[in-house]
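Whether sequence alone determines local backbone shape is best considered at the level of individual chains. The sequence in question and its structure tokens are set out directly beneath this paragraph.

***
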Amino acid sequence: MKIGFIGAGKVGKSFGKYLSNKGIAVEGYYSRSLKSAEEATKYVEGKVFTSLMEITLSCSMIFITTPDDEIKNVAQNIANEFDKNNMIIEGKMFIHMSGAHSSKSMAIIKERYPNNYLFSIHPLQAFADVTTAVADLKNTIFSVEGDQEKLSVITALIKTLENKFFVIKGEDKALYHAAACVVSNYLVTLMDFGLELLEISGIEATEGFDALYPLIMGSLGNIKKLGTRDALTGPIARGDINTIKNHIKAIEDKAPHLLSIYQHLGAETTKLAEVKKLKNPDHTSSIEHLNLLWKEGKLHE
């Protein structure tokens, strides 16, 4: 099994190095940027491929690790290259590593050359830094999607890496990726929201983060142990209406641009709290009434 990478950015470079560290040889990289391909190739002690045709002919498993919007174009260009040279692609496995798109984004290859196989593999982690990403990959869970016929080859590779994985359907990739964005990207936004409130209250962001970090990690630990419904704490879960009113009043006075975020999060938290935490129906109705008053601009009536 010869593995090559089209795209030499953070994802391709990190995953290639991870494979290499696990004793799985990487043949090398092709990239529109020769410098990027050379850097990535040194990282795995492979070779630089000079064309899409060369890497496709040389490798049986081709990972496409370009930006998401380029995956379809890369597949199109591969098909066009072989068409132009009157050559056939056969028995190859093309795998992209986008969380947002299914393997169907490479469908042009299989439409023109049916005896090939398409997959998507997505590691559920952030790739902000290559060195950190390589270290983190050992604890990363992968999603796998693609052609059933050769799916066992892909899952066998991940098992060799000793990583956990789950198999999903192509049509579910968008929802899957949305979930990942909510808990990763939107968590960053949520943290920025909280830190801004602290700064407005007079606490510097770095000091505030250090103070909040144990609270964050404790909440994550509780979710892992108990699940979201039982892990929920705070004034909404307790039905503490006056505390919520005080929050809204303070934000409205000192950070009105953040009020709508607080409101929307509170409304969704109320729905979650209703499942198990809000045993007293009066508490739920009071919070819902508060939401209605806010929407109507009658908070202080």
Notes: The chain has a mean pLDDT of 91.
